[in-house]
Amino acid sequence: MKRIILRLYVTGTTPRSVKAIANLKAVCEGELEGNVDLQIIDVLEHPQWAEDEKIFATPTLIKEIPPPLRRLIGDLSDKERVLLGLEIVEAIESNKAGKQPPDDPE
Amino acid sequence: MSSRILVIDDDAFIRKSFILALEDTGYQVDTVESGEKGIEMEQNNPYDLIFLDLKMPGLNGVETLRELRKIDMAVPIYIVTAFHKEFFEGLKKAGEDGMDFELVKKPIGAAHIVLVAKSALEGTTGY
Question: Which of A53, A94, B35, B49 makes an SS bond possible with B64, Cβ 3.0 to 4.6 Å?
Answer without folding.
Answer: B35
